[in-house]
Design goal:
Elements (H helix, E strand, L loop, with lengths): L27 H20 E9 L11 E4 L2 E11 L6 E8 L11 E5 L2 E2 L4 E2 L3 H4 L2 E5 L10 E3 L13 E8 L10 E4 L2 E10 L7 E8 L11 E4 L4 E5 L2 E5 L3 H6 L2 E4 L15 E5 L2 H7 L5 E7 L11 E4 L2 E14 L4 E10 L13 H13 L2 E7 L7 E7 L9 E3 L2 E3 L2 E2 L2 H18 L2 H19 L2 H28 L4 H29 L3 H4 L4
Parallel strand pairs: 1-9, 2-8, 10-18, 11-17, 14-18, 19-26, 20-24, 23-27
Antiparallel strand pairs: 1-4, 2-3, 3-4, 5-8, 6-7, 10-13, 11-12, 12-13, 14-17, 15-16, 19-22, 20-21, 21-22, 23-24, 25-26
Helix pairs in contact: 8-9
Length: 530
């Protein structure tokens, strides 16, 4: 039997002790980065505002990811994308707003692009030359409903919601050279601007909307007068050449001015959107401030080009009224034509104590002035534009005339004047000069000069002078003989001496005359030159 085997030594594996891992500081970096990224993402999501969509005609100066929407230098959003519309007629700009910018998305807001602008009515946006183009907004009046799609303005609005003032409506037959942004003046100071105009259906008056800044809007009262100050006016007034120019801006972009007569100082300011007439000139606006108007009529048979409604009516260079109408009247019976001029005269301009008088009394007073030669005459108000005026002047030796009535309106007799009268006088003078037979007069004058020259220088004149000299010599011999007989100191001798002396002087004068006429035969007609 075999012996049982003795078991060998048993291998016992060594026991391993696991060591707990220690926290490494380097792990803080990714952890912090994740936390910051999560916070920024959360903040971006929380601060991310709505998407604003703007429509413009063009995208000049705009860039996606760069152009900002700002209000008072505070960023309200950034342009995300710029794309064309489906019909390629405009561009669509999408702006991601901030939470702050979301409050501007109301139906009263207006958006436009701020870029350098150089034109007659608006010079702005210089700051964009350095900072670049940006979009801005006018929040408008409080209220309004939420809106995220807008049509952007191509030009900055004339009035901002944060600018105090009032808006008014002016009515006129013609708009003239007004544009959005044209200035409004009060005593030569710009206090507002034109917002725009509306022609309506084109058949009535045009409506011009203006804005007057505070506190100048308190000067707009029921008696205020507005007039057109566009362009330049050059003319004669009161015998003085006057140049009227409101400003360079008004010359280029058009302008409006207004005034407040003394009678309106105690009135209350007009409410917002009150309506006023717009007069074509300062003279027409000034005439409208007088309460009493006297209507007059005069007629002309000469050219009245340049005389229009609103032209000045003056007396001795002082304005007393305006022309209210110029119409042509044709007489089919006798084929004649004349121009009727209707006028309105303000008596308060020349009579501070003006009172109401019956028409008969006024006709008598006017007739008295007509009897002294007063007539209505056509004159020139501006040599640049050719505008005419009506002037009441005193005509010397005027033909007697009567003041008549035409449907209750007094008719004042007229007289040609100004350039028309000067042209008529020149034509009459030219006609008279043409009737003078200068050719015949010249022929007769030449014949007379030739005859005089031949007579004075001919042999007969020489023979006459020779005989006269012989006669004087004989008279001298006779005088000597008488002197011997009657003595040197007798009265007879003295008388003879005086007679012969005068005869000698006469002969010398005739000789001198003969010599002069030989040299200057034309002296027979023209006289002796100095």
């Amino acid at each position: 039997m075999s012996k049982p085997s003795t078991p060998g030594p048993v291998f016992t594996p060594p026991s391993a002790k696991l060591r707990k891992p220690h926290f490494q500081l380097v792990w803080l970096i990714p952890i912090l980065a994740a936390i910051i990224a999560g916070y920024l993402g959360y903040r971006t999501i929380m601060e991310r505002g709505p998407l604003l969509t703007l429509t413009f005609k063009g995208a000049e100066g705009l860039a996606a990811g760069q152009t900002q929407l700002e209000y008072k230098n505070v960023s309200l959003g950034t342009v995300e994308s710029i794309d064309l519309s489906r019909d390629n007629s405009h561009v669509i700009v999408k702006i991601r707003m901030t939470n702050v910018g979301a409050r501007f998305l109301t139906s009263n807001a207006r958006f436009w692009v701020v870029r350098p602008r150089f034109n007659t009515s608006d010079v702005s946006g210089f700051e964009t030359l350095l900072s670049g183009t940006y979009i801005t907004v006018d929040p408008g009046k409080p209220g309004g409903h939420y809106q995220s799609r807008f049509i952007g303005l191509e030009e900055p609005p004339g009035v901002r919601s944060d600018e105090p003032g009032s808006t008014y409506i002016l009515t006129a037959h013609r708009v003239g050279s007004f544009n959005s942004g044209s200035p409004v003046f009060y005593r030569d100071v710009p206090v507002g601007e034109v917002l725009g105009y509306d022609l309506g259906n084109g058949l009535g008056l045009a409506k011009i909307t203006i804005f007057i800044r505070s506190p100048y809007d308190k000067l707009v009262r029921p008696d205020s007068r507005f007039w057109n100050t566009s362009g330049i006016s050059l003319g004669l007034q009161g015998g003085v050449l006057q140049l009227q120019l409101q400003s360079i801006q008004a010359l280029l972009a058009g302008g409006i001015a207004f005034s407040l007569p003394d009678a309106g100082h105690n009135e209350s300011p007009s409410p917002d959107n009150a309506t006023f007439p717009l007069y074509s000139s300062y003279q027409e606006a000034q005439a409208a401030s007088y309460n009493r108007q006297i209507k007059l009529i005069t007629y002309f048979k000469s050219d009245v080009s340049g005389l229009t409604r609103g032209s000045i009516v003056n007396v001795l260079g002082i304005q007393v009224g305006v022309v209210t109408g110029v119409t042509l009247e044709l007489d089919g019976d006798n084929g004649s034509a004349r121009v009727r001029v209707d006028m309105e005269v303000q008596p308060a301009r020349f009579d501070p104590d003006d009172k109401e008088f019956p028409v008969n009394d006024l006709q008598g007073k006017l007739q008295l002035m007509v009897d002294h030669g007063m007539r209505a005459e056509l004159g020139t108000a501006s040599y640049v534009t050719g505008q005419k005026l009506i002037s009441f002047v005193l005509v010397p030796h005027a033909t007697p005339a009567k003041v008549t009535l035409d449907h209750g309106v007094m008719v004042v007799p007229s007289a040609p004047g100004g350039l028309d009268e000067a042209v008529a006088q020149m034509n009459a003078l030219a006609t008279k000069l043409n009737n003078i037979p200068f050719a015949q007069i010249g022929d007769h004058l030449n014949n007379l000069l030739l005859t005089a020259n031949g007579t004075l220088g001919g042999p007969q004149m020489k023979q006459t002078l020779t005989q006269l000299d012989q006669t004087l010599n004989s008279a001298n011999d006779t005088l000597k003989m008488l002197d011997e007989n009657f003595g040197n100191d007798s009265s007879f001798q003295r008388g003879l001496n005086q007679l012969f002396q005068q005869t000698s002087d006469t002969a010398a004068s005739v000789q001198a005359l003969t010599d002069y006429l030989n040299r200057h035969p034309q002296a027979l007609l023209l006289g002796r030159s100095k």
